[in-house]
Amino acid sequence: MNISCFDESLSFAASIVLSVWLASSGLAAVIGNAVVLWLFYKNESLRTISNRFLASLCAADFLIGLVISPVWMVIRCWIKPPGTATVLIKVLDMLWIHSTAATMFNLCCVSVDRFIVIRFPFRYQDIITKKRCYAVIIIVWLTSLILPAFPVIFEDVENLWPFLIVLMVYIPIALVTLCYVWIYKAARRQATAIRRVTQTGVESTLAVENYKAIKTVGFVLGVFLASWMPSSVVFVVHYLAESDSCADHKLYTVVWPWVEAIALTSSAINPWVYCIRNSEFRQALRRSFLWFFSVEVTPERERSPVPYGNQGL
Predict the structure, then answer these.
(1) What is the model's pTM?
(2) What pLDDT is recorded for position 29?
(3) What pLDDT digit, counting tens, does each position of 173-231 carry?
(4) With bands split at pLDDT 50, 70 and 90, how would you rate the model's confidence at 255?
(5) How confident is the model over 136-157, as pLDDT tens digits?
(6) CB-based contacts of 41, cutoff 8 Å, min separation 6
(7) Alpha-carbon distance 294 to 105, whole Å?
């Protein structure tokens, strides 16, 4: 066995680049999600059921930027604890489980909520009530707080990781992908039908909004997969390389920090993907910061017709 391979870690240059990356994404996550949460708090019109799921997602992303990213940067880039059984590595594992569960489960809530809006527009208020919304959000946060205790409770945690990975990564990826693929198809069918009816008046505006919704769905799904697919691929490689201790060590100490950084960066992108692209949040942002925006929001622009099913896409 090549003992020297177990001494490998991130190079100094890689540590600098990764530190700048994590610091930048963490700061962007804190600012972006804080703005969205502030808008949600200050504007009663934004406190819809769908936006409550978005607010929960922003809260998870805000905590990642404020707490997780700095801790990751210090431990991964500067302390670099040797081996995989140290206390600091266990702390990282617990934080990773919490942040991944909170983000992924909230993303699932947002995606399923939007699926129901499109699939059952007339039954939405009966299906997703305020009590059910709060119950789901509470369950998501309790689950994300309980799961990190598993590495402490169970000594043979290695056999537990496949279950956690499937629960926190693969199932959410499949669920979110299916929801947005269906939403994309529905929005495309609706836009095509509207264009066939007329090209003038309100219907034409609706067609434009549906086309924007289609682009948003593609953007949302693309960012989501780009952020989380690398970690799912590395998980597979990890279990394939378990028989090679040297390769597995390199994967964990050299490759995995970059994969973590990609996943954490999604917390800085999510508020722009899910909220700032939302016309309601943009209007609230302009109203709150008129001194910053050169174009004032007029009443006519605020009352522009947008199909209910596409709001928030």
Answers:
(1) 0.82
(2) 94
(3) 899 889 888 888 887 777 676 666 655 555 555 555 556 666 666 777 788 888 888 88
(4) confident
(5) 999 999 999 999 888 777 666 6
(6) none
(7) 38
Kindly report the length of the chain: 313
Q: One-letter amino acid identity for 170?
A: Y
What DSSP line would sit under the chain, residue for residue?
--GGGGG----HHHHHHHHHHHHHHHHHHHHHHHHHHHHHHH-GGG--HHHHHHHHHHHHHHHIIIIIHHHHIIIIIII--SSS-SHHHHHHHHHHHHHHHHHHHHHHHHHHHHHHHHH-TTTHHHHS-HHHHHHHHHHHHHHHHHGGGHHHH-S-GGGTHHHHHIIIIIHHHHHHHHHHHHHHHHHHHHHHHHHHH-SSHHHHHHHHHHHHHHHHHHHHHHHHHHHHHHHHHHHHHHHHSTT-HHHHHHIIIIIHHHHHHHHHHHHHHHHIIIIITSHHHHHHHHHHTTTT-SSPPPHHHHT----GGGTT-
Tokens coding 293:
């925006």
* Structure-block tokens of residue 238: 């990890």
Can you tell me the distance from the alpha carbon of 128 to that of 115, in angstroms, rounded to the nearest whole number? 12
Q: Whole-angstrom Cα distance, residue 29 to residue 220?
A: 17
287 vs 59: CA distance, rounded Å: 23
